[in-house]
Amino acid sequence: MNKKLKVVILYNEPQPELYVKTDELSSEPTHFVPYFETENLTPMEEYDKIVRKLRRHGLSAYTFNIKDDIFSLINNLKKKKPDVVFNFMEIFHDDPTLEMNLVGLLELLGVAYTGAPQMALANCQSKIFTKKLLRSSNLSTPLFFLQDKKIEKIEHDLNFPIIVKPAYEDASAGIRNESIVKNDEELINRINYVITYFEQPALVEEFIDGRELNIAVLGDVKPRVLPISEIDFTEMPDHLHNIVSYEAKWEPDNEAYHKTIPICPSILPKEIEKKAKEIALKAFKIMQCRDYARVDMRLSKDNKLYILEVNPNPDLTEGAGFMRSMETAGYSYAQALKKIIELAYSRWKRNKKNGSKKKR
């Protein structure tokens, strides 16, 4: 690809001034030894960092924050005419379900953009629908049910322990240590909490005790599975459950953040590694993902694989999640970003060519 592509890093932070920059962990005394050194960049600083990386690797790049304004987005695309939109938009007017609509607008405008199309985002937004699609293709997920109303008593066929999650959130929102329940009383309380606080149904599913695998998939026409990453729970203290909670993902002052330690590549028996990669690739295709996605699984103590979630457009922070697998596969951070951009631009050129042929 000889052309010097112009790339816009597109995101939506309506009130960027509310982010408070902290350079280190809280000075409050802790009862644990931190494992990670935390950079604690704001989202805006992360996007600026991506721009610098791309510029150093031969691309023209800039950031644009739409700030909940569709017309500013349209005007920017018309004025700047970027070759590729690197889509980091996840929410609109404080509603994550509108993420798919933003991508639909990019589709209507006919611009090249990275990541999942609107149908993949819509399908994966609903954990229930995702499970039904996967199970219809004979892919295993934990047994579950949906509860949409507050309750005082309950009857169910699930085995404890059980985990209770908001049905339509992502990025571990609503998943706390208290999300794991061990009896009906705790289950009722947690269901009612989720419905009240998140104003949405509660997903109730059997908790699979075992190893947690993050399986990255890269590509479009011919996607491939990258080296498997694992979350190591061996340092997790007894008072915390072996889960990647909201605290473990996003709160550097929390003990769970420093006790969920990534290992990449994961050391797995060859037959299990092969099976996990086959399942991840199949799930990627079923959910209509493209360019990059992460399939999270649990490997139970009896060596059965269960899909927890399919994550289109997962976090691309350097050194985390998807990028861990890219690095193990031999990509630098900038090379990984550039690869995703090239996938989007090649698809746009291919579709444009095919569209021109149809018009003739």
List its traits:
360 residues; Rossmann fold; Dna Ligase, domain 1; 20% strand
Describe the 3D structure:
By secondary structure, the chain is of the alpha+beta class. Among the domains are: 6-115, Rossmann fold (3-Layer(aba) Sandwich), CATH 3.40.50; 143-207, 2-Layer Sandwich (Dna Ligase, domain 1). Helices cover 36% and strands 20% of the residues. It has 11 helices and 14 strands. The strands form 3 sheets. Strands 9, 10, 11, 12, 13 and 14 form a 6-stranded antiparallel beta sheet that branches. The chain has a 4-stranded parallel beta sheet with strand order 2-1-3-4, with helices on both faces. A 4-stranded antiparallel beta sheet has the order 5-8-6-7, with helices on one face. A hairpin with a 4-residue loop joins strand 9 and strand 10. The longest helix has 27 residues, at 333-359. It is globular and about 60 Å long. The mean pLDDT is 91.
Short description:
The chain has 360 residues and is α+β, with helices and mostly antiparallel strands. The protein is 36% helix and 20% strand.
